[in-house]
């Protein structure tokens, strides 16, 4: 373990795991937390919209600013914002400003962590390190949703989000003192066509997912009368299935190609989405969610 922590890249991977653990806990339980604070469905929808809107508004400015400010400084600012906003949000204070701050922290992290990782490892090791990071992120989703369900039964839904803070704080020492690595700032000019082809499908998919995913936990809990713990178990199983599917991605890409794999996976998701909405049995809905 000491040898691993001596490597800047592995320290960043571990910090990413801890951040993901806390972030997944917030992501899964935010609706229930707001409900426990007395917010209605419309206010919860506005809260989710604000969280996502903050990321959208700041994405392009941060893409320009982060390389100039520094990836490491941007990470430090992201952790500071996450801890401060998470504390206020967990206590039920200044909820909407806290959500805006938390959304900005997430945008900073996404814009700084991946480029910093790429600068810390040689090209030949990047696939392995990013794959490890993705696997640990998926594992964090499994365990954090289980933990959130357990904590809600123990301390009540009102206080669960505060338990994300220790994971954010444990990540801070791991990123302190990391080198900036070597590399050049990304070039955005002259690539409009490439960026359009990359972003447009994601925008369309995101519009559809944004209508469903943020409210799926509330929907399942109310439709089937689940406890917080049972809802957490269902979503934990979904995270586990996602991790297993990631292991099959290389095989699928070899058989149908990168574009074919994307189209196939998106097409297969449609009937399962219909099952989530209309199937009257929890086992079927759980299978569809997987």
TrEMBL record:
Pfam families: MFS_1
SUPFAM superfamilies assigned to the protein according to its UniProt record, in alphabetical order: MFS general substrate transporter
Keywords from the UniProt entry: Membrane, Transmembrane, Transmembrane helix
Cross-referenced InterPro entries: MFS (IPR011701), MFS_dom (IPR020846), MFS_trans_sf (IPR036259)
Domain (Major facilitator superfamily (MFS) profile) ranges: 78-290
TM annotation in the entry: 12-30, 42-65, 77-96, 102-121, 128-151, 157-178, 198-220, 226-247, 259-281
Gene3D superfamilies xrefs: MFS general substrate transporter like domains (1.20.1250.20)
Gene Ontology molecular function, alphabetical: transmembrane transporter activity
PANTHER family in alphabetical order: TRANSPORTER, PUTATIVE (AFU_ORTHOLOGUE AFUA_3G04000)-RELATED
Protein name per the record: MFS transporter
């Amino acid at each position: 373990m000491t040898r691993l922590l001596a490597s800047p890249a592995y320290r960043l991977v571990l910090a990413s795991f801890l951040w993901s653990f806390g972030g997944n806990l917030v992501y899964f339980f935010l609706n229930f937390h707001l409900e426990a604070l007395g917010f209605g469905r419309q206010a919860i929808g506005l809260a989710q919209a604000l969280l996502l809107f903050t990321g959208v508004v700041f994405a392009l400015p941060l893409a320009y600013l982060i390389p100039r400010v520094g990836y490491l400084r941007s990470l430090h600012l992201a952790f500071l914002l996450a801890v401060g906003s998470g504390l206020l949000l967990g206590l039920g204070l200044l909820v909407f400003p806290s959500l805006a701050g938390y959304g900005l922290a997430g945008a900073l992290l996404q814009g700084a962590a991946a480029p910093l990782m790429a600068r810390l490892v040689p090209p030949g090791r990047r696939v392995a390190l990013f794959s490890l990071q993705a696997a640990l992120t998926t594992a964090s989703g499994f365990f954090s949703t289980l933990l959130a369900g357990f904590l809600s039964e123990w301390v009540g839904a009102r206080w669960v989000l505060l338990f994300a803070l220790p994971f954010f704080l444990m990540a801070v020492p791991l990123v302190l003192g990391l080198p900036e690595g070597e590399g050049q700032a990304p070039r955005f000019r002259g690539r409009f066509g490439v960026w359009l082809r990359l972003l447009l499908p994601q925008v369309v998919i995101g519009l559809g997912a944004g209508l469903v995913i943020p409210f799926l936990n509330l929907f399942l809990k109310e439709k089937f009368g689940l406890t917080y713990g049972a809802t957490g178990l269902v979503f934990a199983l979904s995270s586990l299935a996602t991790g297993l599917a990631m292991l099959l991605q290389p095989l699928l890409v070899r058989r149908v190609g990168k574009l074919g794999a994307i189209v196939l996976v998106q097409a297969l998701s449609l009937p399962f989405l219909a099952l989530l909405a209309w199937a009257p049995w929890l086992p079927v809905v759980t299978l569809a969610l997987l």
